[in-house]
């Protein structure tokens, strides 16, 4: 038998092992592409859009935070809620730093009055002023082996504050009397309904499910721990997040929001969205790296660059009165585009962050989760993978 014949199976096995690793580790990214493709081809009828949005907007985050409440210790949550200096650090970045940087980019992009649609520029300002998102942050932080409890705390605090802070920031930035603000109506709308709607939604989707999960964990801790390890119930969080992404794009395609924007403007929004996310990520990482542990840095890297549609969509419809459906759609396009790339890039970011958290000391123990598996020593490798996965599940719970 020639050397080529003996070498060929090993190369095939290595490629096969690498593909299997990609499917297992990045199945969420693949699923993200699938749900967006489905949403672009088939949409829920307009008559059922409202009930679909209400159902998924409440049910999917509720599942995420119920499971989170079941798998996080009460003591850990309390300890993270008491870190007020860290709350101040994160929320200043989430609101003031990101909105200021976003406004600076809008000012640079608005130099040509005949290129960008003014509603898109205002939509970018709204997106930059929003609080951090909830469900995707928790899911991604867990996948990256970050401080999930800290992420839960920061997202709940941020969304509560965002109901009050985000409208003020948007009003401040659009009062700069730039050319693109001329399209806004002279009279604004009251935001009392925004407060009521968002506060109720946060209560039913975040606080109540997490409280119930905490009660069950403290009453049946051993049983829930075994259940979580055996059936990997944390995977439900990712499935719930994919459902949220699907319903967002289903609504955008059904209302023809993307068709109301010029192709050149849409491409520009895509690049601005990616640029904003990367800029906010770098700022959050650099400012946290020198004084926080690695798991907490990972949490900050997910909390600061992320923005939520939970506040963004109602805010875009309630800040000003008598807007046409086309104008409202244009305001929401930057938020929807940013949401897609935010989830996609955040999922890819789990790979380097997970490896960085593990560090050189334990790199050998968790290699199967951080790099594609090698084709040699199959039996030994499978044993290491099984042991590593078991260790990670215990750590998560």
Automatic annotation (TrEMBL):
The chain crosses the membrane at residues 21-44, 56-74, 86-106, 118-140, 152-174, 194-216, 236-253, 265-290, 297-319, 331-351. GO terms for cellular component: plasma membrane. The keyword Metal-binding does not apply. Residues 365-397 are annotated as: Disordered. Keywords: Membrane, Transmembrane, Transmembrane helix. Gene3D superfamilies: 1.20.1530.20. This is Sodium bile acid symporter family protein. It comes from Rhizodiscina lignyota.
């Amino acid at each position: 038998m020639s050397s080529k014949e003996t070498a060929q199976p090993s190369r095939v096995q290595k490629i096969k092992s690498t593909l299997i690793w990609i499917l297992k580790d990045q199945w969420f990214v693949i699923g993200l592409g699938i749900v967006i493709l489905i949403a672009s081809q088939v949409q829920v009828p307009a008559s059922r859009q409202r009930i679909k949005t209400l159902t998924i907007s409440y049910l999917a985050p509720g599942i995420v935070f119920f499971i989170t409440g079941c798998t996080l210790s009460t003591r850990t949550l309390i300890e993270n809620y008491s870190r007020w200096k860290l709350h101040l650090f994160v929320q200043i970045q989430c609101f003031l730093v990101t909105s200021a940087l976003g406004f600076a980019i809008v000012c640079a992009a608005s130099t040509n009055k005949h290129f960008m649609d003014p509603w898109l520029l205002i939509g970018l300002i709204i997106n930059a002023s929003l609080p951090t998102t909830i469900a995707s942050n928790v899911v991604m932080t867990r996948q990256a082996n970050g401080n999930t409890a800290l992420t839960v705390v920061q997202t709940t605090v941020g969304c509560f504050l965002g109901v009050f802070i985000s409208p003020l920031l948007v009003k401040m930035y659009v009062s700069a009397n730039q050319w693109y603000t001329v399209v806004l109506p002279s009279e604004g709308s009251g935001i009392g309904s925004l407060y009521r709607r968002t506060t109720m939604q946060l209560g039913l989707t975040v606080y109540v499910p997490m409280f119930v999960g905490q009660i069950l964990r403290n009453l049946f801790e051993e049983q829930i721990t075994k259940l979580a390890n055996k059936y990997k119930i944390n995977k439900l969080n990712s499935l719930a997040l994919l459902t949220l992404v699907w319903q967002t794009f289903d609504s955008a395609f059904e209302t023809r929001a993307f068709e109301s924007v010029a192709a050149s403007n849409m491409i520009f929004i895509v690049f601005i969205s990616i640029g904003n996310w990367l800029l906010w990520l770098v700022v959050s990482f650099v400012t946290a790296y020198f004084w926080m542990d690695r798991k907490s840095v990972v949490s900050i890297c997910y909390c600061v660059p992320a923005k939520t549609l939970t506040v963004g969509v109602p805010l875009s419809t309630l800040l000003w009165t008598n807007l046409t459906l086309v104008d409202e759609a244009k305001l929401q396009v930057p938020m929807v585009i940013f949401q897609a790339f935010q989830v996609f890039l955040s999922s890819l970011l789990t790979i380097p962050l997970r490896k960085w958290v593990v560090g050189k000391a334990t790199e050998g123990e968790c290699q199967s989760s951080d790099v594609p598996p090698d084709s040699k020593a199959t039996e030994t490798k499978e044993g290491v993978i099984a042991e590593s996965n078991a260790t990670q599940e215990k750590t998560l719970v």
